[in-house]
Inverse folding.
């Protein structure tokens, strides 16, 4: 007999019959009836009507029957909350049962009943079970806390279950520890800031001990928890790594990958010259390779993670290329991933092998895979220069196959190869042109048009080719239209005599007949450019393009770092930060790799540096990195009031453009036709009537107009230019606002002021800012403190919506207004901003005192950096003390608050020094000369009212000055001295 | 953690659902069906899918989909490993893992799932622990149960649950104490047209069948342990001893288990047992092609190659084949276009050959792709990597067990490109 008998029905009505059987006196019949009910439930039939009858069977000593009833209860209690109360008594009783199995079962089931009324009764039994003598019950109870928290978080906190749970981390039984960790991790996920898993060396040690003894699943929980810990130094990091490495040989692949995560993270802290570092690198390769011999689903997840690992540490798998070779019967999702990794690992040493493989793949059946293989050949050419020639010839072979989609892919990648190695492979253009008619995909068409436009001077019939595309202009996709527009303008600039008609045709198609604003804007720009200043047009449109590199398809370093911290999770499969897609991730903390210690790399971001150095600083001064990030994250980043550029006045522009076009074109044509054709040169002055009113603005990026291919998105964000939408924005911005910007800045930066302001330094390198680079300085101008920054967009897309916030700092600095970046920042553009600061913000003492932690937000992400401001900008103008007061104060301040410093190599007379210091609001009150030594007595006042008194000793002929500082807050002395030094030496 | 599980048949029916937290409507599977539709071949369904509110992580085994639903960030490998464990357990309990057998045993399946996971956390996944809690159905037991009213649910706490050796129960007793080990090696290889090895590696496992009374402590040592530089152990193996002495020291689980899996990848250690001389060509015009395949022994270490089988997925435009095999039989599946040639033993004196013509759909272009040839074979009494067990010692118990080691080499994913 099998369970399928439970599905047979009779005519009388199933529910009716079951009801009768459930109320039967015979135990056996009862059990069979409950089984029938469960069987119906599993296939999704509604048997909730039997609730009271089933619950009546609960009081039994037959464990199987009890389990079955519990199963039923869990499913239906929610729909019958009042009835479920009937079960409570039995639960409470079962929690006292001498058999631990029954105690555990009861507490487990109770937790699964998601009815508020029941949870109230659950608390007492749960409290007992958490302290049960039997570890099996304790481990079940630990999980129950997580269940209860999911139903009623407040209740769990009020009842103090969280503390009990934390205590269980120190339990003697490893399984209990593992489950406590799992439960805490789950609870912590919904409370990112609760700091539930307070990891310290003691708990870490306990976890590592439990790690060796608990089940495979427990090991996963513990390893994932360990990965959140930041070791204090490289030695602790090494010792954790040593204890985790044996997990790499576990049969469970999830354990292996979690161990890899811990090792990848903690490795960052190990000095690279350490022997152990090398050993560890070697140990990581075999387990990763082994993951690839598992089931295809496991392989897929492993491959996605290996993709990250290879980008972070290519050395681990550099000799393992062959395991990524594609097998005929791999599922397609595995094939595509393997291909990706093959390209990442391709190097000069193995390129021959890789190319042979790729060529093999290009003849396979699956279209997606073949396409990717063809692209991969192109990527190899770009990555490994030595192989470019072979790649190109391989691609030509593939084009000869005439298989439609292969040809199209090949053309797309050859375009990229042209951009990487200009003037090298143009001989193949003829072959490409032969296949013009077979191209039906927008991307391939756009690529081909780009090639024709870019090399118009070498293709005899370029105008015919482009004209043939122009016929169906409105049916083309935007990508192709934009490309065609640019290509024809290029052609016109190269061969102006024959193509005037063509260019006018395309400009009118783009500006008058198109509804697409991107296309229209680009059309107008070209039109205006051609009509006002053909020389500039040439400079802009035919400008040299930056070479593309293989780096463009890599994941951004900051994102990569974060993803490395999430190895083995869904984030690592999607290659997106968890905050981007995990539901309910209110304030998921961005994880970062720890900074390396001891090695020669000093280019760490300031905040990781401060975290690494936190161990030797007094803990009260610097909040730990986690807290700090939390603080900054909680700050309210308000976007600037105006977003985006004002819409261009289209009609006016249009008229102007039309008028100008006539003259402009005539002038171009005139100059060309009267003397025998002289090629346009940038240095020959052209058409005197064209006043150079609007030279191309300095920030203008030539590549944008220079005819990049709009959005070859399949190659990653990389090879192509920004997508059309992004490309369009800068056209209006620089033209309308560029000059005004310049004038604005002229007022701000240009005028020399008395106060010293240090030169700009880079605060946020583009690597860390996802392409946003911020350099800046501080200055005090007419009594107003200003933060002057240069924002540079080094990414490929437009940045908008800038906003700024400071963390609490020693002197309460805070932005006095929003960050004034009103126009979007297009790629390669820089903008200067001066942000006025107030000193009334919240105060927290920092170390060093003049440290300022800043968060800058834009449309891409929020970035954090810290910088140090010269304290001299806090010196207020009314800092001159009365003589008497000075004397009294000087005496009043105890001598041990006096600090003495030397300023070496300062060749100034005492008067000159005094004048210079006065410019920075350090006022000389008295001067005394003793034995050829000038003593200057000076006072200065900080914005928060602290007075600093100084005695500056200058010996004629001796370039070394001595400064004695006295202040009631002695900790500022060091900073004030630095200001003295900076002011005097500049 | 794991929220719910749906079992879906190959045809797309959800025939079982289990929820460990709140109930999630089965409509969530629509996203899965959509992906399945798109993938075409069920093996090509991506294992991790994102839907607006959930993640679907699935595996495909024995023509069944195990689709799990999660709501929070979980390690997908953890879920996939667990799903495979569920499938293994069904296999273990019911002898096979199929829709009909699961439907026949729904209640047991449900009890098992409840026991394996609690609130999404794995609870008991070790076969011996589960079997103590829920006894596998046998004909005898169901008869006894009906007569005595007994139950197939264990009433006491399984002993293995919390001990340091959760994989073994106490009080095991056998009249015949025996320990057998099978060293099984599979060769994964890709050979190119000319027969050169593009890639080759060996996936090895040691499957154990240990039926020993009491708490035996075993030590297995190898003649050449250096071969094993990339290994994954059953949790019972003491890693420290392996690291220091290169021996496997362990208290074995009771019954069948996989002691060790390993991976030999260095090219020179991987012998390729057979060579394939092949020529598959299609005429540029006209509707036919030719096929000629000969297989011969290469590095067989003097052993007989058995169960030799050749599978060739032909291009879709091939209508039929007309071949002559000197040994064995061939079949050509008209719908899947797979040519299967079952050869049997490889006779080195008289090499098997298959040749003849292929008829191609008239008017169809010459097939673009080259079919790849997949080889299956078996060599008894040989571990192709050369791995040899030198001895097995038992401590902790007094009796003398029967011991045995068997070697076998098979072809794994062994492909010849044409």
């Amino acid at each position: 007999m099998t369970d399928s008998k439970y599905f047979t029905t009779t005519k009388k009505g199933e529910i009716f019959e079951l009801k009768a059987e459930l109320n039967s006196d015979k135990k056996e019949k009862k059990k069979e009836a409950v089984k029938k009910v469960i069987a119906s439930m599993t296939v999704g039939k509604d048997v909730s009507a039997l609730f009271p009858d089933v619950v009546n069977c609960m009081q039994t000593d037959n464990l199987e029957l009890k389990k079955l009833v519990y199963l039923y209860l869990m499913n239906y209690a929610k729909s019958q909350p009042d009835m479920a109360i009937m079960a409570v008594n039995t639960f409470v009783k079962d929690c006292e049962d001498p058999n631990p199995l029954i105690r555990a079962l009861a507490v487990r089931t109770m937790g699964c009943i998601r009815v508020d009324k029941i949870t109230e009764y659950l608390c007492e039994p749960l409290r007992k079970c958490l302290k049960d003598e039997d570890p099996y019950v304790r481990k079940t109870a630990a999980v129950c806390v997580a269940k209860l928290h999911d139903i009623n978080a407040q209740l769990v906190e009020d009842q103090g279950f969280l503390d009990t749970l934390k205590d269980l981390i120190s339990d003697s039984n490893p399984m209990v520890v593992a489950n406590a960790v799992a439960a805490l991790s789950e609870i912590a996920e919904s409370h990112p800031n609760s700091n539930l898993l307070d990891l310290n060396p003691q708990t870490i040690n306990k976890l590592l001990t439990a790690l060796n003894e608990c089940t495979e699943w427990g090991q996963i929980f513990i390893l994932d928890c360990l990965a959140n810990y930041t070791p204090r130094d490289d030695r602790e990091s090494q010792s954790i790594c040593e204890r985790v490495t044996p997990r790499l040989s576990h049969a469970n692949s999830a354990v292996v990958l979690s161990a890899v995560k811990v090792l990848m993270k903690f490795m960052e802290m190990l000095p690279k010259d350490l022997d152990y570092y090398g050993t560890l690198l070697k140990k990581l390769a075999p387990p990763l390779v082994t993951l690839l011999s598992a089931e295809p689903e496991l392989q897929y997840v492993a491959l996605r993670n290996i993709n990250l690992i290879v980008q972070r540490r290519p050395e681990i798998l550099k000799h393992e290329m062959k395991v990524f070779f594609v097998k005929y019967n791999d599922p397609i999702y595995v094939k595509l991933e393997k291909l990706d990794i093959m390209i990442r690992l391709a190097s000069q040493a193995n390129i021959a092998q890789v190319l042979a493989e790729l060529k093999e793949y290009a003849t396979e059946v699956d279209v997606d895979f073949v396409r990717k293989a063809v692209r991969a050949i192109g990527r190899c050419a770009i990555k490994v220069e030595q192989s470019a020639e072979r790649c190109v010839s391989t691609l030509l072979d593939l084009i000869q196959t005439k298989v439609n989609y292969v040809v199209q892919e090949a053309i797309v990648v050859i375009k990229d190869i042209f951009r990487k190695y200009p003037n090298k492979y143009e001989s193949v253009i003829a072959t490409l042109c032969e296949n013009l008619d077979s191209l039906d995909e927008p991307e391939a068409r756009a690529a081909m048009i780009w090639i024709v436009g870019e090399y118009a001077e070498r293709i005899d019939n370029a105008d015919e080719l482009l004209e043939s595309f122009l016929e169906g202009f409105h049916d083309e996709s935007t990508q192709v239209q934009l490309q065609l527009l640019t290509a024809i303008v290029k052609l016109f600039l190269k061969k102006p005599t024959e193509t005037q008609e063509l260019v006018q045709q395309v400009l009118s198609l783009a500006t008058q007949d198109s509804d697409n604003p991107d296309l229209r804007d680009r059309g107008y720009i070209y039109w205006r450019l051609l009509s006002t200043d053909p020389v500039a047009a040439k400079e802009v449109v035919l400008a040299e393009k930056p070479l593309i590199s293989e780096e463009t398809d890599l994941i951004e370093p900051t994102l990569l770092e974060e993803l490395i911290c999430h190895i083995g999770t869904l984030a690592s499969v999607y290659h997106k930060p968890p905050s981007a897609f995990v539901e309910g991730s209110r304030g998921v903390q961005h994880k970062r790799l720890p900074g390396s210690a001891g090695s020669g790399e000093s280019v760490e971001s300031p905040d990781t540096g401060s975290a690494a150095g936190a161990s030797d600083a007094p803990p009260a001064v610097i909040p730990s990195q986690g807290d700090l990030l939390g603080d900054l994250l909680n700050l309210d980043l308000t976007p600037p009031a105006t977003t985006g550029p004002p819409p261009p006045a289209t009609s006016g522009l249009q008229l102007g453009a039309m008028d100008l076009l006539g003259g402009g074109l005539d002038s171009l044509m005139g100059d060309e036709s009267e003397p025998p054709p002289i090629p346009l040169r940038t240095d020959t002055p052209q058409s005197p009537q064209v006043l150079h009113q609007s030279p191309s603005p300095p920030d203008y990026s030539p590549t944008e107009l220079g005819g990049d291919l709009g959005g070859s998105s399949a190659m990653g964000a990389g090879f192509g230019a920004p997508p059309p939408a992004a490309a369009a924005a800068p056209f209006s911005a620089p033209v309308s606002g560029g000059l005004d910007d310049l004038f604005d800045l002229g007022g701000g930066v240009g005028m020399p002021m008395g106060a010293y302001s240090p030169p700009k330094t880079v605060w946020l390198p583009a690597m860390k800012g996802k392409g946003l680079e911020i350099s800046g300085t501080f200055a005090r101008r007419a009594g107003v403190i200003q933060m002057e920054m240069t924002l540079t967009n080094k990414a490929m897309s437009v940045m908008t919506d800038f906003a700024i916030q400071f963390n609490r700092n020693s002197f309460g600095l805070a932005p006095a207004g929003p960050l004034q970046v009103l126009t979007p920042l297009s790629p390669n553009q820089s903008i200067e901003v001066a942000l006025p600061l107030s000193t009334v913000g919240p105060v927290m003492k920092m170390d060093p005192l003049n440290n300022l932690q800043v968060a800058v937000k834009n449309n891409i992400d929020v970035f954090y950096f810290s910088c140090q401001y010269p304290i001299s900008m806090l010196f207020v103008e009314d800092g001159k003390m009365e003589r008497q007061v000075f004397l009294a104060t000087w005496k009043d301040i105890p001598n041990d608050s006096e600090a003495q410093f030397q300023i070496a190599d300062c060749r100034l007379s005492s008067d000159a020094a005094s004048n210079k210091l006065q410019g920075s609001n350090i006022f000389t009150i008295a001067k005394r000369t003793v034995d050829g030594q000038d003593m200057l007595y000076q006072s200065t006042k900080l914005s928060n009212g602290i007075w600093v008194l100084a005695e500056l000793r200058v010996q004629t002929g001796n370039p070394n000055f001595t400064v004695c500082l006295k202040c009631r807050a002695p900790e500022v002395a060091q900073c004030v001295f630095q200001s003295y030094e900076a002011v005097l030496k500049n | 953690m794991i929220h719910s599980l749906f079992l879906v048949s190959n045809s797309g029916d959800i025939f079982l659902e289990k929820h460990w937290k709140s109930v999630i409507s089965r409509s969530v599977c629509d996203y899965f069906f959509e992906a399945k539709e798109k993938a075409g071949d069920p093996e090509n369904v991506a294992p991790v899918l994102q839907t607006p509110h959930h993640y679907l992580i699935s595996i495909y085994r024995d023509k069944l989909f195990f689709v799990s639903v999660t709501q929070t960030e979980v390690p997908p490998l953890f879920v996939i490993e667990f799903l495979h464990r569920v499938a293994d357990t069904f296999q273990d309990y019911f002898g096979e893992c199929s829709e009909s057998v699961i439907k026949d045993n729904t209640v047991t399946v449900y009890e098992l799932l409840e026991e394996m996971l609690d609130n999404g956390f794995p609870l008991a996944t070790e076969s011996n622990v589960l079997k103590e809690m829920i006894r596998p159905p046998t004909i005898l037991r169901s008869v006894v149960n009906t007569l005595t009213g007994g139950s197939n649910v264990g009433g006491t706490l399984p002993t293995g649950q919390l001990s340091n050796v959760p994989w073994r129960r106490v009080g095991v007793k056998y009249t015949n104490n025996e320990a057998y080990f099978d060293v099984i090696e599979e060769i994964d290889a890709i050979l190119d047209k000319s027969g050169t090895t593009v890639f080759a590696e060996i996936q090895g496992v040691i499957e154990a069948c240990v039926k020993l009374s009491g708490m035996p402590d075993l030590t297995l040592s190898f003649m050449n342990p250096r071969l094993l530089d990339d290994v994954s152990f059953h949790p019972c193996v003491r890693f420290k001893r392996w690291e220091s002495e290169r021996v496997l020291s362990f208290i074995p689980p009771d019954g069948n288990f996989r002691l060790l899996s390993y991976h030999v990848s260095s090219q020179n250690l991987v012998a390729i047992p057979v060579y394939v001389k092949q020529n598959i060509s299609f005429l540029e015009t006209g509707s036919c092609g030719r096929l000629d395949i000969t297989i011969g022994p290469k590095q067989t270490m003097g052993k007989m190659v058995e169960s030799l089988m050749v599978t060739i997925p032909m291009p879709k435009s091939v209508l039929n084949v007309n071949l002559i095999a000197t040994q064995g039989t061939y079949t050509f599946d008209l719908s899947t276009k797979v040519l299967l040639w079952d050869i049997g033993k490889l006779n080195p004196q008289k090499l098997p050959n298959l040749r003849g013509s292929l008829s191609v759909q008239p008017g169809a272009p010459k097939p673009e792709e080259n079919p790849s040839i997949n080889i299956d074979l078996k060599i008894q009494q040989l571990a192709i990597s050369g791995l040899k067990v030198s001895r097995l010692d038992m401590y902790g118990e007094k009796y003398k067990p029967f011991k045995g080691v068997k070697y076998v080499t098979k072809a794994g994913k062994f492909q010849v490109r044409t």
About this structure: Chain A has 39 helices and 13 strands. Chain A touches chain B through 107 residues (CB under 8 Å). Confidence is low (pLDDT under 50) at residues 597-753 of chain A. The CA atoms of residues 177 and 416 of chain A lie 55 Å apart.
